[in-house]
Design brief:
99 residues, mainly beta, four-stranded antiparallel β-sheet, globular
Length: 99
């Protein structure tokens, strides 16, 4: 689980991954109430959510993912939709993402 502002409204949203089936869920929050909830992607059991931050400078947090083989992927977010997704490289298994 992680909290980040995926829609740029200044309020933290909630991100989680279901370990059983790989669904990645997002709960857009409006204070203490859920404004939107749903599955934004499904990933294999070898992928994990590594970090959230605004990687493209658009004012919305994005999602950095990594798999067990060292592949690193990025999902650029536009609210609860993935605007762009791709693998950005392989860092190997000896490197760890610092949070």
């Amino acid at each position: 689980m992680d909290a980040a502002d995926f829609n740029g409204d200044g309020k933290s949203d909630i991100l989680g991954r279901n370990a059983a089936d790989g669904r990645v869920g997002l709960w857009e929050m409006n204070g203490h109430a859920v404004a939107w909830a749903g599955t934004i992607a499904t990933v294999g059991s070898d992928w994990q959510i590594a970090e959230t931050a605004d990687y493209n400078g658009d004012g919305r947090d994005d999602i950095l993912i990594r798999n067990d083989n060292g592949n690193v992927g990025l999902w650029e977010m536009d609210g609860h939709a993935i605007a762009w997704a791709g693998t950005i490289g392989n860092v190997g298994t000896d490197w760890h993402i610092m949070t």
